[in-house]
Amino acid sequence: QEREKPLAVANGELRVSGKGKKLRKPRTIYSSLQLQALNQRFQQTQYLALPERAELAAQLGLTQTQVKIWFQNKRSKYKKIMKQG
């Protein structure tokens, strides 16, 4: 008797997991307007306080987690570039 594969809904998209793989949300595609605002904010400060993050997320129609992870990735990329000179 084969067990049913777990289902999950992410961003309105139905995803079926295969061989016990973790379910992952599809990669966020940021609009050019969102990227422009995020990059502009990053130039001002590399770290956002919680209220700032909440405000920015609301303004851009993103979740706080999306903003947080974008900043984490940007800092990582920035440090990598600075390291290379």
From TrEMBL:
<dbReference type="Pfam" id="PF00046">
    <property type="entry name" value="Homeodomain"/>
</dbReference>
<comment type="similarity">
    <text>Belongs to the distal-less homeobox family.</text>
</comment>
<dbReference type="InterPro" id="IPR009057">
    <property type="entry name" value="Homeodomain-like_sf"/>
</dbReference>
<feature type="DNA-binding region" description="Homeobox">
    <location>
        <begin position="23"/>
        <end position="82"/>
    </location>
</feature>
<dbReference type="InterPro" id="IPR020479">
    <property type="entry name" value="HD_metazoa"/>
</dbReference>
<dbReference type="InterPro" id="IPR017970">
    <property type="entry name" value="Homeobox_CS"/>
</dbReference>
<dbReference type="InterPro" id="IPR050460">
    <property type="entry name" value="Distal-less_Homeobox_TF"/>
</dbReference>
<keyword id="KW-0371">Homeobox</keyword>
<dbReference type="GO" id="GO:0000981">
    <property type="term" value="F:DNA-binding transcription factor activity, RNA polymerase II-specific"/>
</dbReference>
<dbReference type="GO" id="GO:0030154">
    <property type="term" value="P:cell differentiation"/>
</dbReference>
<protein>
    <submittedName>
        <fullName>BOX5 protein</fullName>
    </submittedName>
</protein>
<dbReference type="InterPro" id="IPR001356">
    <property type="entry name" value="HD"/>
</dbReference>
<keyword id="KW-0539">Nucleus</keyword>
<feature type="domain" description="Homeobox">
    <location>
        <begin position="21"/>
        <end position="81"/>
    </location>
</feature>
<keyword id="KW-0217">Developmental protein</keyword>
<dbReference type="InterPro" id="IPR000047">
    <property type="entry name" value="HTH_motif"/>
</dbReference>
<dbReference type="GO" id="GO:0005634">
    <property type="term" value="C:nucleus"/>
</dbReference>
<dbReference type="GO" id="GO:0000978">
    <property type="term" value="F:RNA polymerase II cis-regulatory region sequence-specific DNA binding"/>
</dbReference>
<keyword id="KW-0238">DNA-binding</keyword>
